[in-house]
Amino acid sequence: MSWLVTGGAGYIGSHVVRAFRAQGIDTVVVDDLSSGRREFVPEGVEFVEGTILDGGLLESAMQRHGVQGVVHLAGFKYAGVSVQRPLHTYQQNVTGTATLLAAMEARGVDRVVFSSSAAVYGTPDTDLVTESTPKHPESPYGESKLIGEWLLADQAVATGLRHTSLRYFNVVGSGTDEVYDPSPHNLFPLVFDALLEGRTPRINGGDYPTPDGTCVRDYIHVADLADAHVAAARRLDAGEPIEAVYNLGSGDGVSVGEIMRAVAQVTGIAFDPEVGPRRPGDPARIVASGELAARDLDWRMRHTLAEMVASAWSARRAAAE
Q1: 198 and 228 in a common domain
Q2: Backbone angles phi, psi at 288, to 5 degrees
Q3: Are residues 28 and 138 in the same domain?
Q4: Same domain, 113 and 144
Q5: Residue 167 lies in a domain
Q6: Residues near 290 by Cβ (< 8 Å), separated by ≥ 6?
Q7: Closest C-alpha among 111, 129, 148, 123 to residue 235
Q8: What's the structural domain count of the chain?
Q9: Which of 106, 172, 200, 317 is the most buried (most CB within 10 A)?
Q10: Is residue 296 in a domain?
């Protein structure tokens, strides 16, 4: 028996696969490599190249590998780009999820851990987000993730599907030098690329009502995130009570300015970031409570900010060699 990890060749997905293997749980990866990388999949892990829009391929993989549950990470994840590509975003994230759930039903696979997002909240009117904070997504990406949660809930009513959705904010760091974050939109890769190219990193806004004037956000280590997926899967396997959604948050957050100072210290490259204008709609502070996940999924911040930066920098430099 094994767990299927969709998007398992991605930055987060490959860490999830490694976390499952560390717990002795077999996995099979399905990924179309549109953003994932084949080399991110650990040696010895079954890999199926294909899209989650192909129900036949999913059913075949589930049957062939004795799949008992699914961690669903595959999707189009760029919130800003989704505004320009709404139909593509809905096809990948909504149609893809529906296709996956249909394949699961056809093969009797009755448990799923869904990779949701803090984007479902939009710009909340509170600076500490809980699972009950009103959902007001502000991009097709955020909307598609919320619809994904609805699909799971409706399928649970119809078929008894056991499920949970993990909402998280900014995922950083690396659990191994073999995997780094290659995203062209995330803060850490943008800063590291600038430093490696001899440019000064740029941040958006330095006049927010925060201690250092920069935005405060939740940053969590990718290995901690991966462990939470395994804990959720184990809870589903054991038939234990589980919430429909969990926030994976730090409870306090760090500022972009703090990150810049940590990057300078870890890399040994002294710099003062260029400060551009605020981005429209960026709130001063968004931090999530992780209390429910701490109760049920042994969720906690196991890495300091310095460790997040150091692990991400080490993996990025290894990739550049």
Answers
A1: no
A2: -110, 145
A3: yes
A4: yes
A5: yes
A6: 246, 247, 248, 249, 250, 251, 299, 300
A7: 111
A8: 2
A9: 172
A10: no
The CATH number of the domain where 178 resides is what? Answer: 3.90.25.10
227, 307: one domain: no
pLDDT per residue as tens, the chain (321 positions): 899 999 999 999 999 999 999 999 999 999 999 999 999 999 999 999 999 999 999 999 999 999 999 999 999 998 889 999 999 999 999 999 999 999 999 999 999 999 999 999 988 888 799 999 999 998 999 999 999 999 999 999 999 999 999 999 899 999 999 999 999 889 999 999 999 999 999 999 999 999 999 999 999 999 999 999 999 999 999 999 999 999 999 998 999 999 999 999 999 999 999 999 987 767 888 899 999 999 999 999 999 999 999 999 999 999 987
**Rounded to two decimals, what is the model's pTM?**
0.95
Catalytic residue among 11, 90, 121, 141: 141
Six-digit token string for 180: 């780094």
Cα distance between residue 237 and residue 260, in whole Å: 41
Look up tokens 């690329």; give the residue.
Answer: 193
Domain that holds residue 204: 172-218+250-289+302-320
Q: Is-catalytic flag, 141?
A: yes
Task: For residue 33, give every residue at least 6 positions away whose Cβ sits within 8 Å of its Cβ, in sequence order, or none.
Answer: 9, 49
Q: Are residues 185 and 154 in the same domain?
A: no
Q: Is residue 295 one of the residues assigned to a domain? A: no
Structure tokens at 14: 């490959």
Length of the chain: 321
